[in-house]
Specification:
The protein has 2 domains: 3-62, 434 Repressor (Amino-terminal Domain); 68-142, no CATH class. It has 6 helices and 4 strands, in the order H-H-H-H-H-E-E-E-E-H. The chain has helices spanning 3-12, 16-23, 27-35, 45-55, 59-62, 110-142, and strands at residues 72-75, 78-85, 88-93, 96-102. A 4-stranded antiparallel β-sheet has the order 1-2-3-4. The protein starts with a helix and ends with a helix.
């Protein structure tokens, strides 16, 4: 656990004690991150920000990646799921890819991804409704 964070600590050639002194982050927090007693994805965002600033890296460089295969749900009768491949995330509605995103997503993105799926489903349903209305008008005009 926290492999990305540990890599950043190793690259910096600093001890958790030195990082604590330099950043003001409690030594206990850093020690628990290094030993894996605490997940970096579950610490305060301010702490993650300080670490990124200290290591000159992005959040993706220190947060643990999340397996989004388990991220799925149902909204308004439509099944949705996310599947990942390297740094690409696909949103599927009823097993059809409708959106592709680049990047590595951490646990704290789960709620955002659920909300995004619901928004995409709303847009999908609106498009289907307009398509049906158009078909109705077209068939009426043909008579």
């Amino acid at each position: 656990m926290n492999e990305q964070f540990i890599i950043q600590v190793y690259k910096s050639k600093k001890t958790p004690y030195q990082i604590s002194k330099d950043t003001g982050i409690p030594y206990t927090t850093l020690s628990e991150l290094v030993t894996g007693k605490k997940s970096i994805n579950h610490i305060a965002s301010e702490t993650v920000y300080k670490l990124c600033k200290y290591f000159h890296c992005t959040m993706e460089d220190i947060l643990n990646a999340v397996n989004l295969y388990v991220l799925q749900g149902k909204y308004k009768g439509i099944n949705y799921s996310y599947c990942t491949k390297e740094d690409t995330v696909n949103l599927l509605l009823n097993d059809n890819i409708i959106a592709t995103y680049q990047g590595i997503y951490a646990e704290n993105w789960v709620e955002v991804l659920h909300a995004n799926a619901k928004l995409c489903i709303e847009e999908y349903l609106d498009a289907k409704k307009k398509e049906l209305e158009y078909d109705k008008l077209y068939s009426y005009a043909q008579k």
